[in-house]
Every structure is written in structure tokens, then in C-alpha cells.
Write a sequence for this structure.
């Protein structure tokens, strides 16, 4: 498990491109037949993926957590962006198709991942946060399980941000200690995931960009509103956004992204909007 330190906004102002990418960009998220994890000391989120191809993979705590098992003191969110697969939680199997999700509460001990077809492997994207209470494990089929109020169509083609927000894990949909997770899908012709942008001091956020064509790039914008920076990203890469940083993007093609938030406030709409005239 790779460990990333926290980030001070005063220091980040001085970072060059290589340093920004080193500290915030997570490349090669999906490694065949491996579970790859990155532990960020920013709100202690763990980001990564299980990509079973020819074998079943087991989620283990590793030395970094100093725990008997991965979810001894944690909760876990999963969204599959690959082929069909199965997640087994303490002997119970859950069958995933593309874009199905899941929440697993603190205390689950034996978690394994496998693919139905090695030629089209599952890609289980993972977000995990520290937990203080056990909430029920819940499987999420976005086509039928997400409540209407948690599936919101926003923006318009004229402003290039026509998109649908699908809220998988948050209060009122799937209960958790602090983890929130969902997916935003941009319509063809739209390239902005959110603008005007915002920050939220009460939680950090991680984005995973996918459904990005091979010849396209995503420009992820970060930094303080008056000290913006950007990171050029490609398909199936993730980026860490501290609570003091904006988190917005535009791209050369429509795309989809998974957002995961960890912090003390689970109010989705608790955002500090940034006026366009204040951006620098």
C-alpha cells in the first residue's frame, strides 16, 4: 500500500508539474491480478482497485493499517467499471455487472474478488474510510436501487456540462459513517464536470475518471481558488483533492467519473461556491 502525506496549500503554490502529479495523481489504478491501494493521510482515505483476471483476490489489511483485517476499523465502497464479477463478503456472494456498486460496513472480515470472464475482467474500484459503527452491507444496482431524488440531471449543452449525478452512498440512500460515493455521467458534447467550482472544508474528495477515449485527455483543476493548478489525466486515473482545493475538470471528450468523499460532514450540498470572477 502506497502512503501519501497531507498537503499544505501554502506549499502547493510552489509545486511544479512533476510534484503535483507525484503527490495527487494516482496512475495505474487497475493492475491485473492485483489489489493496488493508495493510503492518503488527507482524512485517511484509501483509494484503489481490485482487478481479478486469472485468480481470486483477497482484501487484506497489510502492515500499514496495523489491523487484524482490512475492515476492522474501516468501511468500504465499491463500484465496478469492468466486466461481470463477484464480491464475496463473509461467505455471501454478490454478482456485479458494469457500474454496480456496494457498501460494506465495518467488521466484515473475509472479502474476495473474482471475474466471471478473464478476457473481460471486472474492475472493482475501491474507496475506504475510517469507521466508528457498523452499518449494513448493501448492494447497489444503479438502474433500480438509487432513489429518484438521488439521480439528478443538471447543466445543459450550451454550457457544456449536461450531466447526471448518481448518488450511491450517502445519508438517505445507503448509510455510512462518513464515506460518500457516487458517479457522474456527462452527455455527448459536454466536457465540464462542474463549473462554477466549489470547495468544501468539511470533507476531501477523490475523483476517478473513466470512459475517456484513448486519444482524449482530462484537465483536472485543483488548488485554492486564487491559486489554481491543473493535472493532465487519462483514462482510469484517480486524483486526490484536499478540502481546501477546488475540484473541477474539462476534457477533450465527454467522460464519466466516480467521486468519493470522506470527512466530518455528510451533507452533499454543503459546498462553498466560488464566483467565476474570483478564480485565478
Amino acid at each position: 500500500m502506497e502512503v501519501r502525506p497531507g498537503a499544505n496549500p501554502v506549499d502547493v503554490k510552489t509545486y511544479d508539474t512533476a510534484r503535483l502529479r507525484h503527490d495527487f495523481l494516482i496512475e495505474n489504478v487497475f493492475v491485473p491480478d492485483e489489489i493496488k491501494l493508495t493510503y492518503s493521510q488527507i482524512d485517511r482515505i484509501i483509494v484503489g482497485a481490485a482487478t481479478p483476471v486469472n485468480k481470486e483476490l483477497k482484501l487484506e489489511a497489510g502492515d500499514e493499517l496495523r489491523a487484524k483485517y482490512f475492515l476492522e476499523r474501516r468501511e468500504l465502497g465499491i463500484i465496478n467499471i469492468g466486466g461481470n464479477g463477484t464480491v464475496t463478503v463473509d461467505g455471501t456472494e454478490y454478482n456485479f455487472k458494469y457500474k454496480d456498486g456496494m457498501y460494506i460496513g465495518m467488521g466484515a472480515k473475509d472479502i474476495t474478488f473474482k471475474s466471471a470472464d478473464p478476457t473481460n475482467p471486472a474492475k472493482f474500484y475501491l474507496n475506504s474510510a475510517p469507521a466508528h459503527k457498523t452499518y449494513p452491507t448493501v448492494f447497489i444496482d444503479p438502474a433500480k436501487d438509487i432513489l429518484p431524488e438521488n439521480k439528478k440531471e443538471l447543466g445543459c449543452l450550451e454550457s457544456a456540462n449536461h450531466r447526471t449525478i448518481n448518488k450511491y452512498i450517502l445519508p438517505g440512500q445507503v448509510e455510512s459513517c462518513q464515506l460518500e460515493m457516487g458517479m457522474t455521467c456527462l452527455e455527448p458534447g459536454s466536457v465540464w464536470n462542474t463549473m462554477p467550482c466549489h470547495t468544501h472544508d468539511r470533507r476531501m474528495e477523490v475523483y476517478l475518471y473513466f470512459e475517456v477515449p484513448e486519444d482524449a485527455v482530462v484537465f483536472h483543476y485543483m488548488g485554492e481558488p486564487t491559486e489554481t493548478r491543473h493535472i493532465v489525466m487519462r483514462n482510469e486515473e484517480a486524483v486526490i483533492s484536499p478540502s481546501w482545493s477546488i475540484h473541477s475538470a474539462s476534457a477533450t471528450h465527454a467522460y464519466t467519473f466516480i467521486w468519493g468523499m470522506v470527512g466530518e460532514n455528510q451533507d452533499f450540498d454543503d459546498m462553498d461556491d466560488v464566483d467565476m470572477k474570483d478564480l485565478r
In short: The chain has one domain: 2-278.
